[in-house]
């Protein structure tokens, strides 16, 4: 059985241990929620202050050129592209995941309507993140398509029906942490004539992603989760080069124009992914995000994604082992797949009752995970206690301590205190 000493020894030997220094983490907190809001990069406060004081305060409008504000979305896209298997000039950071999803789903709907008008359905998972489903509903209404929501094991049968225009999937499920085989699923979608749109919110920066290798069609992902870009950080959007230039996106704003400063009255989309920009970009937020992406550049020198993935799996394996050995008999069940190839960078536990109060009791002890509500259904759809393990800054010792706190909360029944049962606005 793994001991605290073993965990400390693993931390001492961890090739990525220096990356924790790139973050400011509050004392006394075990932060296991980097998959909801990433930690603060140490460089971000000074960087944002400099952009405010110098680039905005002193250099004012000249900073669009002088400080390179105008191409920041594309520069950050190029900086991060290798981490998702995308090429240079194929990614921009802009807007939110929800908005980017609206753009790519609309683009995909237009491609599908033009190439295969008999295809009238968009398929996604019932357990997909709700905003993805809400956006898909809107796009379907606008383009005369029907949205079908299924369980993961029903996707193949849906594709075989032959009328699927778009398959919209989130690579790593936000509740269970289950991961799809992107290349295999994309190949099956293509074999049945469907376009494949991937949401990478819980995978970008946390697990290996190879969009070009998987021959994906479109992808979007989050800047404030594993990328540590700050609350509401700009998200990213990617379209395969064969599709990027094919249709104008629906939010045809001037920053996506081929020549925004020509001020012509008619819209001419920029070539490629540049057209996925809409209006004036949030420079302060992009500047903070850059500090998060810079940590990945540092990680590249320490083994890159292979090293991050190895550590992430070691962390999640350890947490599963410790929960199963130390917290047995308290009604917890594992919702996250044990098989490495099917697991993202989180561990989700289900419990029939009081999952919310247990999470609250842990937070009161400084162990920050989160609760995700089920829909009352069986299996996949139970209430969840969710723990994210960001390999950039989580230590093996943290995993040990988190598991001990969980054991104590369960053994003492601390979660029964009334204050842990009050439901907050943001859970
Ligand atoms: C976090 C998350 C989002 C968030 O979308 P926003 O537009 O940033 O609010 C969307 N989809 C998935 C799958 C997510 O995990």
Automatic annotation (TrEMBL):
Keyword Acyltransferase assigned to the entry: answer is no
According to the UniProt record, one GO cellular component term is: cytoplasm
For this protein, the record's Pfam families field holds: KYNU_C
EC assignment: 3.7.1.3
Top EC category: hydrolase
Membrane-crossing segments per the record:
none
Source domain of life is: Bacteria
Q: Does the keyword ATP-binding apply?
A: no
Query: Catalysed reaction per UniProt?
Result: 3-hydroxy-L-kynurenine + H2O = 3-hydroxyanthranilate + L-alanine + H(+); L-kynurenine + H2O = anthranilate + L-alanine + H(+)
What InterPro entries does the record tag this protein with?
Answer: Kynureninase (IPR010111), PyrdxlP-dep_Trfase (IPR015424), PyrdxlP-dep_Trfase_major (IPR015421), PyrdxlP-dep_Trfase_small (IPR015422)
Q: Where are the N6-(pyridoxal phosphate)lysine residues found in this chain?
A: 225
Name one process (GO BP) from the record.
Answer: anthranilate metabolic process
User: What residues bind pyridoxal 5'-phosphate, as annotated?
Assistant: 97-98, 129-132, 170, 199, 202, 224, 254, 280
Binding partners and assembly: Homodimer.
The UniProt entry's sequence similarity note says: Belongs to the kynureninase family.
Q: What does this protein do?
A: Catalyzes the cleavage of L-kynurenine (L-Kyn) and L-3-hydroxykynurenine (L-3OHKyn) into anthranilic acid (AA) and 3-hydroxyanthranilic acid (3-OHAA), respectively.
Please state what the protein is called: Kynureninase
Protein's organism: Pulveribacter suum
């Amino acid at each position: 059985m793994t001991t605290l000493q073993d965990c400390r020894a693993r931390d001492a030997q961890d090739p990525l241990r220096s990356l924790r220094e790139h973050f400011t983490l509050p004392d006394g907190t075990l932060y296991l929620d980097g998959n909801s809001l990433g930690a603060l990069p140490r460089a971000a406060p000074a960087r944002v202050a400099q952009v405010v004081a110098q680039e905005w305060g002193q250099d004012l409008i000249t900073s669009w050129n002088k400080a390179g504000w105008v191409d920041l979305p594309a520069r950050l896209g190029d900086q991060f592209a290798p981490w998702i298997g995308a090429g240079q000039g194929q990614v921009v950071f802009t807007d939110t995941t929800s908005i980017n999803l609206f753009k790519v789903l609309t683009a995909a709907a237009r491609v599908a309507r033009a190439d295969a008008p008999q295809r009238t359905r968009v398929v996604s998972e019932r357990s997909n993140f709700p905003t993805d489903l809400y956006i898909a509903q809107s796009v379907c209404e606008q383009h005369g398509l029907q949205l079908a929501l299924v369980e993961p094991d029903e996707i193949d049968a849906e594709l075989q029906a032959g009328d699927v225009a778009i398959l919209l999937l989130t690579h790593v499920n936000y509740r269970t942490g289950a991961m799809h085989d992107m290349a295999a699923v994309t190949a099956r979608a293509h074999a049945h004539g469907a376009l494949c749109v991937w949401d990478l919110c819980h995978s970008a920066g946390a697990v290996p992603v190879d969009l070009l290798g998987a021959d994906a069609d479109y992808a979007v992902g989050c800047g404030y989760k594993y990328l540590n870009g700050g609350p509401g950080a700009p998200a990213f959007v990617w379209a395969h080069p064969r599709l990027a230039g094919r249709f104008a996106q629906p939010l045809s704003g001037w920053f996506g124009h081929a020549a925004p400063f020509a001020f012509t009255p008619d819209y001419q989309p920029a070539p490629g992914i540049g057209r996925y920009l809409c209006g004036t970009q949030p420079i302060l937020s992009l500047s903070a995000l850059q500090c998060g992406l810079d940590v990945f550049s540092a990680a590249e020198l320490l083994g890159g994604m292979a090293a991050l993935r190895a550590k992430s799996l070691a962390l999640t394996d350890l947490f599963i082992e410790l929960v199963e050995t130390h917290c047995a008999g308290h009604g917890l069940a594992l919702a996250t797949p044990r098989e490495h190839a099917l697991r993202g960078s989180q561990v989700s536990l289900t419990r029939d009752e009081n999952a919310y109060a247990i999470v609250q009791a842990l937070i009161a002890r400084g162990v920050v995970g989160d609760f995700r509500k089920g829909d009352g259904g069986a299996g996949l759809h139970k209430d969840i206690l969710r723990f994210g393990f960001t390999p950039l800054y989580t230590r093996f010792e943290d995993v040990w301590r988190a598991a001990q706190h969980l054991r104590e909360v369960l053994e003492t029944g601390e979660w029964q205190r009334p204050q842990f049962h009050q439901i907050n606005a943001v859970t």
